[in-house]
Amino acid sequence: METKGIAELLIQGGFAGMCAVLLGLLFWMIKTLIALIREHNTVLQAHTIVMSEIDKRSGELLQLNRQVHDRLLARPCLMKKTDDV
Fold first, then answer.
1. Which residues contact 65 (CB under 8 A, 6 or more apart)?
2. 9 assigned to some structural domain
3. Model-level pTM greater than 0.70?
4. Residue 54 domain-assigned?
5. What's the half-sphere exposure (Cβ side, CA atoms, 13 Å) at 52?
6. Could you give the percent of the chain with pLDDT greater than 90?
7. How far is Cα 37 from Cα 29, in angstroms, rounded to an integer?
8. Is 58 part of a structural domain of the chain?
9. Into how many domains does the chain fold?
10. What pLDDT band is residue 48 in, cutting at 50, 70 and 90?
11. Does residue 3 form part of some domain?
12. Average pLDDT over residues 52-73
């Protein structure tokens, strides 16, 4: 009867040990996930800054393109007028 009690204690101790290992693994995974999220937020912040700079520059280029378009339309046409057209 005593061997059955020792075996039960060993099995319970094994389950408790496995629980402790799994709990440690869970905490390590959460710690790693939080670090990964922080890195992701840093990259996302830098990406947002770059995208706003691209948006600003594209607005400036669009304005320059419109100015060139207006200047080209203001110039006289150099093509000779013919009756064919």
1. none
2. no
3. no
4. yes
5. 5
6. 65
7. 12
8. yes
9. 1
10. very high
11. no
12. 91
Q: Read off the pLDDT band of 2 (50, 70, 90).
A: low
CA 78 – CA 33 distance, rounded (Å): 67
User: pLDDT tens-digit profile of 4-39?
Assistant: 788 888 899 999 999 999 999 999 999 999 999 999
Three-class SS of the chain: CHHHHHHHHHHHHHHHHHHHHHHHHHHHHHHHHHHHHHHHHHHHHHHHHHHHHHHHHHHHHHHHHHHHHHHHHHCCCCCCCCCCC
Tokens standing for residue 27: 């905490």
Q: Domain of residue 56: give its range.
A: 31-69
Nearest-angstrom CA–CA distance, 36 and 44: 12
